[in-house]
Amino acid sequence: MTYLPPIDFTELATKRDLDQRLDLLEQRLIAVFRGEFNAAVTSQTRAMIFTMAGTVVSLGGLALALARLG
Length: 70
Fold this sequence. Notes:
By secondary structure, the protein is mostly helical. The protein has a domain of about 35 residues. It is built from 1 helix and no strands. The relative contact order is 0.05.
C-alpha cells in the first residue's frame, strides 16, 4: 500500500458508480441495436415490396399476353 500514489477517497469509484455507468452503457447499446435493427428491417421491407410489385406487374403482363394469344 505504501507504493500506491496518494489518492483522495472521493476519486474512488463505488459499486453504485459502476452500476450507473454499466446501466448507461447498456442503454446506449440497446439504442444503437434498435436503430440498426430498425434500419435493416426497413431496408428489407422496401426491397420485398418492390420485388413483389415487379412480380405482380410481370405476371399481369404475362396473363394479358396469354389472353391475347388464346
